Every structure is written in structure tokens, then in C-alpha cells.
Amino acid sequence: MNAAAQPGTVYLAGAGPGDPNLLTLRVLRLLETADLILPDDLVSAEILSLAHGGRKLSRLGNGVGSRALRRPRFTFLCWGRRRRADPCCG
Asked: Which strands form 36-37's sheet, in the order they lie side by side?
């Protein structure tokens, strides 16, 4: 099974309870290979540090007053990436 992010595919992945040691291998491989990652504010910096350096990161936010993308923008970004065949993990 190829666990790398595939072109033209949008993945919805959970970070579990927030401990990087408890991520599934699948989520770890997606973080390592996705071109765009759209985490909410609950995903720790420690988990995001597992992503490869060439990826784009745009926070979704999950709290009052957070400067983040709104859901319609998230959907727009994901579908735009999918149409261009760029892997995206949100």
C-alpha cells in the first residue's frame, strides 16, 4: 500500500489526542508528502513539525478571535488543489 499523498486527492486526517507519538503511520506519511496542510488550532506545532519543509501551511482556526481560514475558503482551497492534482491534507 502506498501511504504517500496522491496527486489530485484531498485527505481529511485526525491528529488524535495531540501526542505526535500516537499519530497513525498513514497520517504521518500524509504530513510528510502533502503539498498543502490545513490544520485547525488544535494541531500542535510539534505535530506540524513532522511535515516536509516544502509544503504550504494555512491554519483553519478553531477558536474565538483566531486569524484563520473560514470553511468556505477551506473548501475552495481543497478543490482547487484537487483540480490541479496537488495532494492536500486537512
From this structure: 10-11, 88-89, 36-37, 56-57
DSSP 2: -
Name the burial class of residue 33, with classes exposed (0-12), middle (13-18) and buried (19+) by CB atoms within 10 angstroms of its CB.
middle
Per-chain mean pLDDT for the chain: 76
Residue 29 neighbours by CB distance under 10 Å: 17
Q: Rounded mean pLDDT of 53-59?
A: 79
Phi, psi of 5 (to 5 degrees): -65, 130
| Count of CB atoms situated within 10 Å of the CB of 10 | 19
pLDDT of residue 21: 92
DSSP state, residue 6: P
Mean pLDDT of 72-86: 63
